Amino acid sequence: MENVRQMEIGPGMSIVELVGCMEHCGFGARRLAEAVSIYEQMLGEEYTRFFTLSGAMVPAGLRNVVSGLIRNGHIDVLVTTGANLVHDVIESFGSHCLGNPESDDAALREEGLSRIYDVFLPDEHFIRFEELMQSILPERADPISGTEFLRLIGSRISDPKSILRSAYERHVPVFCPAMSDSMIGLQAWLHRQNKPLFVDTLADIKEIVDICYEAKRAGIMIIGGGVPKNFALQSMLVTPKSFDLAIQLTTDTPENGGLSGATLSEAVSWGKISAEARYVTVYGDATITFPLIAAATMSKLEKRRDQCIDR
Amino acid sequence: MENVRQMEIGPGMSIVELVGCMEHCGFGARRLAEAVSIYEQMLGEEYTRFFTLSGAMVPAGLRNVVSGLIRNGHIDVLVTTGANLVHDVIESFGSHCLGNPESDDAALREEGLSRIYDVFLPDEHFIRFEELMQSILPERADPISGTEFLRLIGSRISDPKSILRSAYERHVPVFCPAMSDSMIGLQAWLHRQNKPLFVDTLADIKEIVDICYEAKRAGIMIIGGGVPKNFALQSMLVTPKSFDLAIQLTTDTPENGGLSGATLSEAVSWGKISAEARYVTVYGDATITFPLIAAATMSKLEKRRDQCIDR
Amino acid sequence: MENVRQMEIGPGMSIVELVGCMEHCGFGARRLAEAVSIYEQMLGEEYTRFFTLSGAMVPAGLRNVVSGLIRNGHIDVLVTTGANLVHDVIESFGSHCLGNPESDDAALREEGLSRIYDVFLPDEHFIRFEELMQSILPERADPISGTEFLRLIGSRISDPKSILRSAYERHVPVFCPAMSDSMIGLQAWLHRQNKPLFVDTLADIKEIVDICYEAKRAGIMIIGGGVPKNFALQSMLVTPKSFDLAIQLTTDTPENGGLSGATLSEAVSWGKISAEARYVTVYGDATITFPLIAAATMSKLEKRRDQCIDR
Amino acid sequence: MENVRQMEIGPGMSIVELVGCMEHCGFGARRLAEAVSIYEQMLGEEYTRFFTLSGAMVPAGLRNVVSGLIRNGHIDVLVTTGANLVHDVIESFGSHCLGNPESDDAALREEGLSRIYDVFLPDEHFIRFEELMQSILPERADPISGTEFLRLIGSRISDPKSILRSAYERHVPVFCPAMSDSMIGLQAWLHRQNKPLFVDTLADIKEIVDICYEAKRAGIMIIGGGVPKNFALQSMLVTPKSFDLAIQLTTDTPENGGLSGATLSEAVSWGKISAEARYVTVYGDATITFPLIAAATMSKLEKRRDQCIDR
Lengths: 311, 311, 311, 311
Description:
Deoxyhypusine Synthase; alpha/beta; 50% helix; 6-stranded parallel β-sheet; 311 residues
């Protein structure tokens, strides 16, 4: 058995050094270090990388981290919630604000502010969102899949930091299995009152299942559970394959039986994740754990690359 | 200020008496008693009652509670996950099993058992589910909404305890905004490889928004957050109305910013819930809190009815 | 494997019937039913029953439930926090109040109200508590154990619903391993500025270890973890015995490595709980789960007693 | 209102840069950045710094972080659990091991391994601990306070990385209000079967209250709640002062009314924390958040020092 090596910290230590210390510790620190190790492996060439994003991660400030990963080629398939895409579009023209999570919500309503914990959004952003959507939503006589629909929106957003734009540019398919559960869905519905538009969400199933089939090896980074987690795992289920690497960042725990807190081991019983897979769940707020894991992994990758060049 | 009245319990006490004691206590007990009080009001005639169901509540054993509420006229609109509907269909011909949540998941896979915490499902149920679905899925040349699609499935299930069957019989619309994220979605996609079928999930938006518009007063019981919570609240948002009564049963907490743990007060800032609404969140496992709240409310309602008859 | 039996609820159902339904369900419902079954066994004659109480259970309204269990002979050893005993003494002359957990805490301070989530306590109660303690605290030239000290306080409280009074009357030892971490400790320290008093908390160790040694069989009900949980389990550890039955009600989960959320299985690795023991953890707010479990168990016991008399 | 600034991460970024990004984000990231800012202020000269440590932080690998802070003069008063001190003593001669948290606990017992989540401890370490304690525990005819008792133990441990040794050397008082709830307490009790020893835990109250009185300004870092949190806050309560700065790292949340999850705002209603204080709670596993906060703060301090020297 490996010994616990008591962590040593000091001024000026790098993120990689900190994570390196965590590797020999217990509890969450150890899981976080393991996540970095798995993520480093997952960014290797032979992997098709799925990335699922739930929770209000874009309003909280992780948009550029996600779009950066897309632009760096670190995400091959993105599955997310409608809300994250709505806020991605909003960030292309305006900002979310920081406020007090204990504010009087009735007063906020009177001021025209919608609250997501400590992030506020003024009503004018929703008005502008509506105008933008009505101007860029496609007209199509034939049904299109949800990913195609989102690709078209991405092509019409100019902000290079946008998740949808970045995915469009890098040919990364974006799946949003609950699109009607978002303001994009609402706008699409309004739009087609007088324009032809049919979004065929069942068509998405074929697209993602094909990607699963074609993956040589597959890895998945799951942020926050929910529909995106299930949709990605279920898609693998209908193929003879399964995920070889998996990381889950969640604040839910398994005892209540919900999918968002279910262990990745549970997914092994379904055949979604391989019995030989490496996987780890990091419990905690992904606004802390995700950038830490991503920054550590990037640093390790660059170091490895530098070492290769040196030789 | 009201005083805490120390709880007194004894043998033979009824559920209503227990909840009556909780009313004058602090913490979760008080919230649970408040939920019963709000639920009793919500079951009054003038309310349109929304009910959202997330988490693996059907596998865990709450199916008949939900279908019973539908048959009793206590649910007017149901919004749920695909998974709960899949397991509802499965329960119409076979049972889930109870197992050890610490089982070896690779061994379970070899035995053909899929695990949902401590509930197991044998593969043969999925095979039979597939056969059933392929035999009852509708053929339709024209697009149908998700609710119409689910209504058709409900009409073809014979088990009277089924949620889908009960909803069909009682004309309760069932919304499943992430249908493609479920085995019903998968089966629908397989089905239409050679049969015409087009499920138009955007059409659901109009149907639920219309119900929101027409509601004299609206109440909502939210079990477990997720897409169903958001879809129901969002639908009210696009009307000039808002929910007057709301109950949320969840294991999530607000600090992480996700919707499933967001306070109902937060929904007031969006205008989804009225500033004058009565609302409460009961934190805890809904397999405990929900039947307790429902049984207490039913008992109180019957008592009130008996008193009316006595006069 | 046992099948999940879908729960059926209805008006007028008893607590025992509700728990009976939960027995065949998954997740928390199943654990709660198991807790009732274990508790019923634990109340059998051959068991010495340990009861540990953490969290602000007395302010929240569970004082009379605990003192009732003591008076009924259902608790043989009580281990608790200083705070619960302080609030037990306060409830012997005054009440806690119910308030809004989102109150302005600075304003509460100005009004002289101390807040425990949604339970408030006016400063005058603390003043009266101080007067009472200074009048009843014992003078003793020789060192006394913590349990003896608490026994003396219990003998001087007249309220029959008091936990300390009930324990005194029923000869139930009360252990408070962190007594100096409470206002009882503070008052004892003030008191002995001019009166002799020496509380020897190490002496408590011998007293509880002796009880562990003498127990034919031992059961434990753990409410909320913390020092009381550890003290009771540790005491068993130094004997050749271990707990045969154990129930834990907690809101903590295991992932973070803290004792309050540690599984009871973990205690098996230490030898605190027997490898053959029956044990279960019910996750959730004990102000809901504990009265439910206690009321169900009492009802089952009375029913069994009635059946015996009938024969 | 300040805008959310979308986080930008990249290879080679420093911990300070990462935390700098988090400052303009929502949810946990923002709280963590605020904790660093408060901690930086707290390490200023005019503050007396209280540090409370709960949870199995020493077994998990944070021992040297804590002893390092003591040696750096960043902790003026330490309040902790007996368990952390026991494991501190054990680490002075032996190591904890890393294992699988899903191990068979009955098998571990047979192998003589005690488990703390994923950290294992072989029985021989406890035997050696007992021998060491029996050889170093003091003999004293007159009662000594708990802090004096721990100071004496610290003076007899040679490992410079020990928390108790470091505290002894730096004259940092260590408070352990529930000493009898630990193996140090058990050993002390065994020791005095034939040697004079009286630990007077009430005497600790005076010592810590005196420190509170004398503090010009006071700050507190609370890791994990429990008795240490309460003892430190309560000690301030009996003075006319209150904490000016406070940081809490916890996995508990407020809804259940327990102290470990109680907001720091709640402590304002008691007068433990000043109404004008800066305070923040970071929710999450302290094995991740604490080293991150400590390393970031150290780096910022050193940078500031370097800038001063440069001028």
